[in-house]
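re: ur question from yesterday

yeah so i grabbed the chain u mentioned. its 163 aa long if i counted rite. heres the sequnce exactly as i have it in my notes:
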Amino acid sequence: MNLVVAVDKKWGIGNKGQLLVRIPDDMKNFRSLTEGNVVILGRKTLATFPGGRPLKNRVNIVMTKKGISPDTEAVTAGSVEEVLELIKKYKSEDVYVIGGTSVYEQLLPYTDTAYVTYIDYSYEADAYFPNLDLSDEWVMTAESEEQTYFDVEYYFRKYERKK
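ran it thru and got these structure tokens back, copy pasting raw so excuse formatting
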């Protein structure tokens, strides 16, 4: 299983229920990775999407104990075990965890590859992702050249779980 996340220098991922920054090329990268595949997200993350609707051209699995609107075209799972059962019918490399914090924390142990947009700036954040650079379980296996969006520098990184 994979995950996709954008982090700042302190591995912050959000503030007050919103992304820290919206970078068009990061959004394109996210779309190219996840389109046609399975995405796993939390109820609060779903609520941040336009109209609170699932992402198009993807199988959306929403982890929630509270449920979602019955007319939402997404599959729900109330636990990690339910998610793991649901994704058995897909290839592991076609499954992407996309947030938020709680979903990342619960599914990180089952993830083999992390696609991280590392933003070389510190934003005000109240939601964080574990710093993979400090983990003995993960190694960065690829990093793009420096990218820029106005005055913000960022990198596309790939981390893989050590075997």
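noticed a couple things. The mean pLDDT is 95. also The longest strand covers residues 152-161.
anyway ttyl
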